[in-house]
Amino acid sequence: MIAINNQVERSSGESRMKLQHLEGDTNTQMSMIDAKSRQLVDEVKTMIEALRSASAAERERMEQRLMNLIEKSGASRDLLLEKVDKRLDEMQYGVEARLIKLEEAILDSRNQITDVQTHIESKLLAKMDSNIKKNSEDVTKLKRECREGFATVHESISNVKTVMEGKRKLLEDQLRKEIGQIRKMVVLV
To answer: InterPro entries annotated for this entry (predicted)?
Structure first.
């Protein structure tokens, strides 16, 4: 019984350890994914901010250049303004296109992270379900073995009891015969 109890406790302890390792691995992987996604978002934000700053600086530079040109040449002012506006529009369009691409990249990264996270969660849940099922089967098998062991012990005890009862009756009959013979001998004497 003690060995069976020890085996059940050892099996239960091993299952707990496996589950704790799985949870630890899951937490580590989730932390790594979270840190990676945060780093990616921070990098993209930094890039966007740098592009905006560069765009603003370029715009200011172009505006300053335009003002200088206007001061120098009043006749070509309208033409220069048109060229500068066109250049600024092109730059703004380019920056907006890059921002859209970066936002799409961020969205794709988030979707990939979500897919990876979902895959990891489903894989871990499947593994945990498998371990729980195996442990349940082990416990059921152990219970069955215990019941069979108890039945065998009970049967052995019943057999020993029957044998002992038979021996007791034989001894009782033998003692009665011997007592009867002693009485006959006493009567004869």
So the answer is: FAM81
